[in-house]
Specification:
16 strands, alpha/beta, single chain, Aminopeptidase, six-stranded mixed β-sheet, 405 residues, Alpha-Beta Plaits, 11 helices
């Protein structure tokens, strides 16, 4: 069916105004601003005729959950996005909370990650409702908090019974269909050597030199047991912190002394079908080899867990799954070309709440949203054309999955 007339009904100015309003809410993660924006979204959903309420996550943190009930007989579609944002950094040339719109972009902290995606699926449903469209299947809108703590908001939604037949997670992918992303873990490696004064350093076991030997090898790692070359393509290790000095307290005032202790902190990414335990074991084998190169060196690795954070699972969907074919067809109709699809970097290295929906519920879904190119940087912004096209693509997905009544 040709839905061109429905797509043409999109009120572009209203859509941009809504996104600007959302940006003007300071919804930093784990602040009261999250709750204010969640309440704002509940009011918006109720004004559209959805059953909508705030849902407790933990303490005063809340999700905003809405459902447009269908007439029955159709499949349900859930949209998922987070309201919490990172803080604004230095280097901005526009007001991070101004919601500025110019000829090409809309700007603001969190506009890419991921308020543009949040606004896009609301506007998609609003356009259909305003056109008098009735659907057989339910449409569920979830605006969660705590994605930046590993998805605690989406986990709370799942535990409280939120689910559907299919889902679209609207994390920023520059409108590409991401069918696989990695799971992540943070590790800490401690290297203990044997100190001497620099005059006798040949007798020492230098922890800093050992760390310098190890880090490039870690950064080049791929993990074992990848299910395919595509799965292996989203394996990655990166060391982001290294300190070396004297003793576990890392005393720095005695520079002539060979460092006998180094602490390395990094992150690993592994694909569906691989495990954290296996990935840590692979790193352990690198440490075995390191000890052979540095006789007398002691090594220890542990996975770091942060209180209040969850592990974000890996995500995967078959490229011929219905939700993937649906969004591919919608993209082609809106943009007149094939949609890039697969384990596409860099989004395939990100964690998303799609992992929880896939892991806990076995839901078939896709990760596809506006933004990405200018994500988490000064003057964070989203291409207006991408934002508006995403709304149209979501409209077509709703029509295909939920079906006209």
């Amino acid at each position: 069916m040709d839905h061109s007339a429905l797509l043409a009904r999109l009120d572009e100015k209203w859509a941009l105004d809504l996104l600007s309003q959302m940006v003007r809410h300071r919804s930093y993660s784990e602040t009261d601003g999250e709750q204010v924006l969640a309440s704002f979204m509940v009011d918006k959903m109720r004004s559209l005729g959805l059953e909508a309420d705030l849902q407790t996550v933990a303490g005063t943190r809340v999700n905003a959950i809405g459902r447009l009930k269908g007439t029955g007989g159709g499949k349900s579609l859930l949209f998922n996005g987070h309201l919490d944002t990172n803080p604004a950094t230095e280097g901005w040339t526009v007001d991070p909370w101004g919601g500025l719109v110019d000829e090409h972009f809309i700007y603001g902290i969190g506009v890419s990650n991921m308020k543009a995606g949040d606004a896009a699926y609301f506007c998609a449903l609003k356009t259909l409702v305003d056109a008098g469209i009735r659907l057989k299947g339910d449409v569920v809108l979830t605006y969660v908090v705590g994605e930046l703590q590993g998805g605690v908001g989406t986990v709370a939604a799942i535990e409280q019974g939120v689910r559907a037949d299919y889902f679209i997670n609207s994390e920023p992918t520059d409108l590409q269909a991401v069918t696989m992303h990695a799971s992540a873990f943070t590790f800490v490696i401690e290297l203990t050597g044997n100190t001497r004064h620099l005059s006798k350093r040949e007798q020492a076991v230098d922890a800093i030199v050992a760390a310098c030997d190890l880090i490039p090898r870690l950064n080049a790692m791929k993990f074992s047991n990848a299910l395919s070359a595509e799965h292996e393509s989203i394996n990655r290790v990166h060391v982001g912190v290294m300190r070396g000095a004297l003793g576990t307290e890392l005393h720095e005032w005695r520079a002539p002394q060979v460092a006998d202790f180094a602490r390395i902190k990094g992150s690993g990414r592994y694909a569906p079908g691989q495990t954290q335990a296996s990935a840590v074991a692979d790193i352990g084998r690198e440490l075995d080899a390191l000890r052979e190169r540095f006789p007398g060196l002691k090594t220890h690795i542990h996975v770091e867990k942060q209180e209040g954070h969850r592990l974000m699972p890996a995500f995967e969907v078959a490229k011929d799954a219905r939700i993937v074919r649906t969004i591919n067809a919608a993209y082609a109709q809106v943009r007149g070309q094939a949609q890039p699809t697969g384990a596409i970097a860099p989004p395939s290295f990100f964690g998303t709440d799609a992992g929880h929906l896939y892991d806990a519920l076995g839901m078939e879904g896709i990760v596809c949203g506006p933004g990405g190119r200018y994500n988490t940087m000064p003057d964070e912004r989203v291409d207006i054309a991408d934002y508006l096209d995403m709304i149209r693509i979501y409209m077509l997905c709703i029509l295909e999955i939920c079906e006209l009544s």
